[in-house]
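Dear colleague,

Thank you for sharing your sequence with our group. We've completed the structure prediction you requested, and as agreed, I am returning the results in plain text so they can be pasted directly into your records. Please verify that the sequence below matches your submission; if there's any discrepancy, let me know and we will rerun it promptly.
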Amino acid sequence: MKNQRSSPKPDPRSAAVQNRRISRIPAFTPAELRGRHDGWSPVRQAEFIGYLAETRCVKQAAALVGMSRESAYRLRRKPGAEEFAAAWDFILEGPGGAEGNGTRKPKVTLEKLFQRIRVGRYRPMMRAGRYVGTLQKPDVSALLAAISRLDMVAPREDHWDDFPADHANKKGASL
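Please find the predicted structure tokens below.
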């Protein structure tokens, strides 16, 4: 059996990529960063993704949101910015590009779920190939997933006898 190589990634500057119109960008959770008035806020991250879909140029998209190309690449490499990077890849590689190359989605931890609950999901809106604004929605699916996981972590009722009396009283009082 021969080694099957996936097709090489298209060059974002190629005519095929430049002429491809993106009508829908997947929603993503922005990276949580220290709050700065001149930094990568969640809205600024979503606007960057929207302008990137419109222009297909990192330098131009970063300039349109008042940031530098270098800071955009630094943000992309930060821990916690995986969804931002996935949206970026979706735009430059096309539908099925990021998922179709054999990469796995990262495991979603409780910490990541709580981040998605706090921050919500951002979806840059496109009309006729132009970025028109960003829609922010709470991530209800993350809330439900966190609740189901917390239910698995909590001790079962028949094991409450194993806990000290004061802990069981506190546990019962908080329910």
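Summary note from our side: The CA atoms of residues 58 and 73 lie 9 Å apart.

Kind regards,
the structure core
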